[in-house]
Specification:
Length: about 375
C-alpha cells in the first residue's frame, strides 16, 4: 500500500520524539521530512525515573500513558506543519511509543503513549504495539530494525548497521543471513554522566571523552557483566544498564573513584568494546559498518571504533539517510507492513517460533 506514512520513535535516550515523513512508491522508500520533538523536562525526568526504577502506581502510569501520547500527537502535527502536508494525505502513522519496561523473560514489553489518542487527535489511522506479537510467538520482541535494514539495504553484500541510541545494537545483512542483537550501553550512561557532572545533555562530538584516556581497570570491571558474553538472540535496555548498574560497578571497583571525564571516556570505550565484541560474533566480517542514531555524531566514539576495525566505518548519511531518522522510518515501514498484513521476518533475529504480523490498528 504505497503512499505517505509517518513514523514516530522515542528511544531509551529520551532526548525526544523522532518523527519522519516517508513515501513508499513502487518499492522505493524516500524520506520526505524529519524532526526531533523534545520532551518537556518534567516528562523526560519522570520517564527516566521510571526506566531507572520500574515501579509506578496505576494512576501515575496512566497519566504518563496520556501525556506521552499527547507529545507524540504534537510531534506529528509539527511534522505536518513543517513539511506542508495535509493529514488527509497520510495513509497511516506508525508509533513505537516510549518503552518503559522490556522483559522477554515474562514475556512482556510495555510501550506507552496510547495510539488511540494519536489517531483521534491527528485524524490519521495509527498502528502501534509492535513488539508484543513477537513475544507471544516466543521471541525477544527486539530488535525490530534488522528487518527494515534488510529492506532498505537489499543490494549490499555484507553490511553491519549499528544503531547507537541509549542502547546500542547491530544488524547484520548478508546474502544468506539477517541477524541482530543489542550489544549493551550506547549513549545512555554517557548522557547520564554529562547531565550529572557537565551541565549538558550529551557529549557533543565526544569532545569531553576525548580529553582523557579511558580507565582500563574500570573498563575491565564493566566488561565482566554477564550480558556481554551471552550469545544472540539477546536484548536489553535502560531498565538494566542504568545509573544503578553503574553505581554497583563503581562500588565494587575501587574506593578511589575516577574523575568524571575519565568515567565518561571509559563509558565511551565500553560502547566501542562491546560493539567490537558483537561484530566478532558475526558469521563473516562485514565489508563496511554504517552508524545511525545519536552515536553517529560522537566523533570520538567513531574514531575509536574505526581504529580497532579493518573495514570502513561510515554513517547512514553516506547513503543519504539522516542518522537520527532511521528508526522513525522503520516505524513508518512497520505501519505499511501491518496494513498489508505482512509478517515481519524476525524469527532468525529474535528467536521466535515463527514470523509475526506486528502491531494493532487504531482508526481515526
Amino acid at each position: 500500500m504505497d503512499g505517505l506514512y509517518i513514523g514516530l520513535m522515542s528511544g531509551t535516550s529520551l532526548d525526544g520524539i523522532d518523527a519522519a515523513l516517508v513515501e513508499f512508491s513502487d518499492g522505493n522508500i524516500a524520506l520526505k521530512g524529519f524532526l526531533t520533538y523534545p520532551y518537556p523536562q518534567a516528562l523526560q525526568q519522570a520517564l527516566n525515573q521510571l526506566n531507572e526504577q520500574p515501579q509506578a502506581s496505576l494512576k501515575s502510569l496512566c497519566q504518563l500513558e496520556h501525556d506521552v501520547a499527547m507529545q507524540f500527537t504534537q510531534a506529528t502535527q509539527a511534522l505536518l506543519e513543517q513539511t506542508g502536508t495535509a493529514s488527509k494525505t497520510v495513509t497511516a502513522i506508525g508509533s513505537h511509543g516510549q518503552t518503559v519496561f522490556h522483559a522477554p523473560d515474562i514475556p512482556m514489553s510495555l510501550q506507552i503513549g496510547h495510539p488511540a489518542f494519536i489517531a483521534k487527535q491527528t485524524a490519521v489511522t495509527t498502528v502501534a504495539d509492535f513488539r508484543i506479537d513477537d513475544l507471544a510467538n516466543g521471541g525477544q520482541g527486539a530488535p525490530l530494525a534488522p528487518a527494515f535494514h534488510r529492506t532498505l539495504f537489499a543490494h549490499t553484500e555484507r553490511l553491519a548497521v549499528i544503531n547507537i541510541g541509549g542502547i546500542a545494537n547491530i544488524s547484520y545483512l548478508s546474502p544468506s543471513d539477517t541477524l541482530g542483537f543489542d550489544t549493551g550501553p550506547g549513549n545512555g550512561l554517557m548522557d547520564d554522566i554529562c547531565r550529572q557532572h557537565f551541565g549538558c545533555d550529551y557529549d557533543a562530538n565526544g569532545q569531553l571523552a576525548a580529553q582523557t584516556e579511558p580507565d582500563n581497570r574500570l573498563l575491565a570491571q564493566l566488561l565482566t557483566d554477564d550480558y556481554f558474553a551471552q550469545p544472540a538472540p539477546k536484548t536489553t535496555g535502560k531498565d538494566y544498564f542504568n545509573q544503578a548498574w553503574l553505581n554497583r560497578q563503581l562500588t565494587s571497583f575501587s574506593s578511589e573513584q575516577p574523575t568524571p571525564k575519565a568515567l565518561l571516556s571509559t563509558l565511551n570505550q565500553l560502547t566501542v568494546e562491546t560493539l567490537i565484541q558483537g561484530l566478532k560474533t558475526l558469521p563473516e566480517p562485514p565489508t563496511e559498518v554504517l552508524i545511525c542514531g545519536g552515536g553517529a555524531e560522537n566523533q570520538t566514539l567513531l574514531n575509536r571504533l574505526q581504529h580497532s576495525l579493518r573495514y570502513p566505518v561510515k554513517t547512514t548519511a553516506d547513503y543519504g539517510i539522516h542518522p537520527h531518522a532511521m528508526e522513525a522510518m522503520m516505524c513508518a515501514w512497520l505501519a505499511q507492513q501491518r496494513l498489508l498484513n505482512r509478517p515481519i521476518p524476525l524469527a532468525s533475529i529474535t528467536g521466535a517460533k515463527r514470523d509475526s504480523i506486528l502491531g494493532g490498528i487504531w482508526h481515526a
